[in-house]
Amino acid sequence: MQERPEIAPWKVAVGGLGAVGRKVAEALDAGLPGLALAAVSARDRSRAGPILASFREPVPLLPLAELAAAADVVVECAPAAALPEIAEPALKAGRRLVVISVGALLSNEGLIELAARHGGQIIVPTGALIGLDAVSAAAEGRIRSVRMKTRKPVKGLAGAPFLAERGIALDGIREPTKIFEGSAREAAKGFPANLNVAVALGLAGIGPDRTRLEIWADPTIERNTHEIEVEADSASFSMRIANVPTEDNPRTGRITALSVIACLRKLRAPLRVGT
Q1: Has residue 1 got a pLDDT over 70?
Q2: Does the domain spanning 10-128+255-267 belong to CATH 3.10.20.30?
Q3: 226 given a catalytic annotation
Q4: What is the bridge-based pairing of β-strands 96-99 and 73-76?
């Protein structure tokens, strides 16, 4: 029997060790086929120390801007404001860049041109949604409308700029209350830590300006819930997902990190399921 040739793994760097980044780095350290954790970055170096000490293999702790030089694939798991610092060096070097701060792409659209110019690629995982494959497929034809309704526990919306700018207090909410209605682009500006899912939906389908969104603060639920309805010439479909929040960050669902890990696993898999 002919032996399979040994193929060098792709080196992966993870920018951020928060609720998502830590899970992704731990999965890479435990082993994903064809991939190897090469470096990480973290805002709080003292907190990162014990995390790195728990890894099977030692990896360097680098500034965000230096991750691209250490890896073939860079995974952005940082606050949205840090996206350019991670993305620009990675795309200029022709790397694959996995982005979870999808909303920040709308204010940094030049990154897409940068990727095209240097042979890089921006990859957006499905994240906390379902059905992006179906939306992408429908977009190859004609989509008439995409509507999304997001319901979140009150604490999961705390600190959103939209609420602060309008003086909206959440403390007194005792029943489900609609606090926003507009486009996915508008939602990304007003709720940058909450609505990456809406922007991903917009990019997969008819764009963030035509994708319509409602946001509800709901004290009766404990999970981040998204309901989506799509009308297209190829199909009409609806989707619903209720995500369990992470222990560290109520704004982020546990499935977000798992989605990134699944995305990475597909990069070098001999069988890839899904568009």
Answers
A1: no
A2: no
A3: yes
A4: parallel
